[in-house]
Amino acid sequence: MIELNASRYQVPGDPLRLMSRVYKFILPSVKTELNRIRQQASIIPDPELRRQALASIQTKEFHCQGGSVYAAANLPQRHVLIPLIVAFQTISDYLDNLCDRSTSMDADDFRLIHQSMLDAVIPDQEQADYYALRNEKEDGGYLQGLVDQCRSCIQQLPGYAAAQPYVVDLVGLYIDLQVYKHIKPELREPALLTWRQKNRDRAPHLKWNEFAAATGSTLGMFMLFLAACDPELDDAAAAVVHRSYFPHVCGLHILLDYLIDQAEDQLGGDLNFCSYYESESETLNRIEWIAASARQDIKTLPVSSFHRMIIEGLLALYLSDPKVGQHAEIKQVSRRLMRRSPLTRLFFFANSRWIRKFL
């Protein structure tokens, strides 16, 4: 079994129960964790590393809030899952900031600092010197502390031995993406196309930009953390989790993120995977198709209604972003996606607006 041998009533299967847990347990715990991490970030000796660490927490808090929703499926283990998810997502967001606004465009540097993500999910692996190839080095132990927190939590997951190969697979793909999409602009697309060719047997039905987007999500990793709460998790069950989330749930997640960031990325000269679609119509059709595929994939998981809420919540979270209303084309695509949405998504849409405004 997958959900910690939990009977179905322990995993929220309806929106009201899920959001009740989110408001009562998840969001307060995430806030506590982030406040503690923010304190550590505020004393980083190097001013550039400190600035990027604080900025990643300030502007990407909702990543940790969204990821920690998986702890709502196993409240007795939330004391493990929330610190793990928050620490791991904070590493991801911090490194993304370092690469996006980097003083370096060195692929080896990007790969080395992202080695911290692999070290975080392979507890017995010797940690690297993550800043060895960049000018800014003194973080006061900030990144190593986040890695150590992940490792400490992972050691409390009784089924992690079965989940680890699949977590490592997703983390490896994520690192490849981060390296290739942050190198010199003229090298990015050729590197990504070559990388896709090397992985042509993985999700061959996806366009190259869609495959790349799918590798940029941490949701599959978080779901595997949740599954690893089960001491009886075996390889077969872990494989089901992996293929239920990758590539379609993960791809939907990141394509929605890129959808609402198109204007911002164009202004900043950043790569955006939605920009490779030929038209607004193709963008909408492909995202709708990937969403439908994601809904089909999660039916293989126990308590699939929980994972269906994750999918509808993703649509609600991103389509409720204030940036949607600032750009006519994005607003039109969003309206069409919402027009076809079930009432569940409308419920999450309202809650996403509430969280953004008041929390």
Keyword list:
0% strand, mainly alpha, 359 residues, globular, 68% helix
Word description of this protein:
The chain is mainly α. The chain has two domains: 13-156, no CATH class; 159-359, no CATH class. Helices cover 68% and strands 0% of the residues. The protein is built from 17 helices and no strands. It has helices at residues 15-41, 47-59, 61-67, 78-100, 107-121, 142-154, 160-180, 185-198, 208-215, 219-227, 235-245, 248-260, 262-268, 280-297, 304-319, 328-339, 343-358. The longest helix is centred in the N-terminal third of the chain and has 27 residues, at 15-41. The radius of gyration is 19 Å and the shape is globular. It starts with 14 loop residues before the first helix and ends with a helix. 46% of the residues are buried.
Number of strands: 0
- Strand fraction: under 5%
- Which structural class best describes the helix and strand composition? mainly alpha
Radius of gyration: 19 Å
Tell me about the largest β-sheet: none
Low-confidence stretches: 1-9
Order of helices and strands: HHHHHHHHHHHHHHHHH
Tally of separate helices: 17
Gross morphology is globular
Averaged pLDDT, please? 90
Q: Please give the alpha-carbon distance between the first and last residues.
A: 35 Å
Please give the domain count: 2
Fraction of residues in helix: 55-70%
